[in-house]
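Supplementary Methods. Inverse-folding protocol.

Structures were first reduced to a discrete structure-token string of length 285. This string, shown here, constituted the complete conditioning input.
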């Protein structure tokens, strides 16, 4: 039986496959041509940024973007010329280009926050003896900003620069808990479609369990729901406008973070998240 997705006791419940079929059909016509082309180019750059080390083969990138190879190749040629993308000589894989980084220099306050966040998250990971992550919200996805801690966790494949759908991480779930029902529905429509396209339906029940468990506890809680033996917890980090622009996560094995430690873990997360929120206000995040 396909799982249903519920935001809370009084919120909507939807079948994930139904969600994948309810994506809005984009408007067509000559007045949309330029906007659609720009949107395809942005989607292409987001995909490339999601695999900064391994990169993409042309065929895989075209499939992931649901575009034909000829169209994607034309866009890549332009992006390479503009230095937003580069092609590695050894395997011809496409990678983020230097202009992506250079454009980010126009936001110095975010760079200052990043440096401060690295110190705060590293201290938190040491204090809690686990692995800590700071995940930034990026539309319907998250991108890992900081990973700290030396605890070996083979099931945790998230590093700085990793980009994935919000609902696939306990940190993303914590951010979803801060949104309105309409906002959550829009995110899930996109996230379920991404999940089914990339992995099929095999993980949907596990992801639902994580979200339901988090709903019962009032913050992000994953007690081995997605990766057996890996426990993870998260709370949102709010910016100057009050929106949850990030999530602070703590992860470790079940014997280190058992269910009996939930209250202690939540308090520690919230204390450190408040420090990060104060820094975010200082740097106009």
């Amino acid at each position: 039986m396909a799982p249903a997705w519920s935001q809370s006791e009084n919120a909507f419940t939807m079948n994930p496959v139904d969600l994948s079929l309810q994506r809005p059909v984009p408007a067509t016509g000559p007045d949309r041509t330029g906007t659609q082309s720009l949107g395809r180019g942005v989607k292409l750059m987001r995909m490339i940024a999601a695999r900064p080390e391994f990169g993409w083969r042309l065929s895989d990138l075209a499939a992931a973007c649901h575009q034909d190879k000829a169209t994607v190749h034309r866009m890549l040629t332009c992006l390479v010329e503009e230095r937003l993308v580069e092609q590695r000589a050894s395997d011809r894989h496409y990678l983020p280009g230097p202009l992506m980084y250079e454009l980010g220099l126009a936001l110095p306050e975010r760079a200052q926050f990043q440096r401060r966040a690295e110190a705060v998250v590293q201290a938190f990971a040491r204090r809690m003896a686990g692995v800590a992550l700071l995940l930034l919200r990026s539309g319907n996805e998250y991108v890992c900003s900081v990973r700290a801690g030396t605890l070996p966790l083979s099931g945790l494949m998230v590093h700085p620069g990793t980009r994935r759908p919000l609902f696939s991480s306990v940190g993303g779930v914590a951010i979803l808990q801060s949104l309105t029902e309409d906002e959550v529905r829009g995110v899930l429509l996109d996230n379920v479609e991404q999940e089914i396209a990339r992995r099929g339906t095999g993980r949907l029940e596990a992801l639902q369990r994580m979200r339901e468990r988090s709903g019962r506890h009032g913050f992000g809680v994953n007690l081995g729901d997605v990766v057996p033996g890996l426990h993870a917890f998260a709370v949102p980090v709010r910016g100057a406008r009050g929106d949850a622009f990030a999530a602070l996560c703590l992860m470790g094995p079940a014997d280190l973070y058992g269910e009996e430690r939930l209250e202690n873990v939540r308090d520690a997360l919230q204390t450190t998240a408040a420090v990060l929120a104060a820094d975010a206000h200082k740097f106009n995040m």
